[in-house]
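Anyone up for a design puzzle?
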C-alpha cells in the first residue's frame, strides 16, 4: 500500500465522514487491515486513510499504544472535543513527508470522541504520546499536516 506524499491534494482537504452502519457491516475491514500493515511496514505510530489515497475520515494507531491505553486502534469521524491548557513542543515526523521532522506544539491532554472500527461510539481522555498521536491523525483528516502546523 503506497503512502501518498505532500503536495497530494487529498492531504489538504477535509475527509468524508463514514457511517456507523458501514463500519458495523465490515465495509472497511480490509482497508483497515491494509493500513495497519502499511503503518507497521513504514515504522509509523499512526496512519490516516488520506495518506493512502482514500478520502475517508478514518485512521489507525499502533496496536501496542492502543493496548497500553485500553482503547481501540481504529477511529472514524474523530473529533478532539477539548484541549488541555498545558502544551508542549515535541519533534514530529510524518509518513507523508519523508525525512522531515519539526517541533510541533500540542496539548498534553485532550478529550477525544470517534467511532471505533466496528461503528461504536467511543469517548475518552488522552494524555502524553497518545494525545499527540490522536491530534496528529485528526489533523490529517481535517487537511492539515505538520508542515501547516510548523512555526
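Challenge accepted. My sequence:
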Amino acid at each position: 500500500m503506497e503512502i501518498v506524499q505532500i503536495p497530494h491534494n487529498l492531504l489538504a482537504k477535509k475527509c468524508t465522514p463514514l457511517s456507523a452502519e458501514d463500519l458495523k457491516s465490515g465495509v472497511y475491514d480490509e482497508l483497515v487491515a491494509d493500513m495497519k500493515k502499511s503503518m507497521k511496514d513504514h515504522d509509523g505510530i499512526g496512519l490516516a486513510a488520506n495518506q493512502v489515497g482514500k478520502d475517508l475520515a478514518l485512521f489507525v494507531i499502533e496496536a501496542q499504544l492502543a493496548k497500553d491505553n485500553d482503547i481501540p486502534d481504529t477511529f472514524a469521524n474523530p473529533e478532539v472535543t477539548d484541549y488541555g491548557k498545558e502544551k508542549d513542543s515535541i519533534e514530529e515526523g510524518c509518513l507523508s513527508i519523508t525525512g522531515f521532522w519539526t517541533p510541533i506544539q500540542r496539548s498534553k491532554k485532550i478529550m477525544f470522541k470517534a467511532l471505533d472500527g466496528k461503528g461504536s461510539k467511543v469517548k475518552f481522555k488522552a494524555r502524553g504520546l497518545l494525545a499527540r498521536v490522536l491530534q496528529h491523525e485528526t489533523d490529517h483528516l481535517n487537511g492539515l499536516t505538520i508542515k501547516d502546523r510548523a512555526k
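A detail worth pointing out: Helices lie at 20-25, 29-41, 63-68, 128-141, 146-149.
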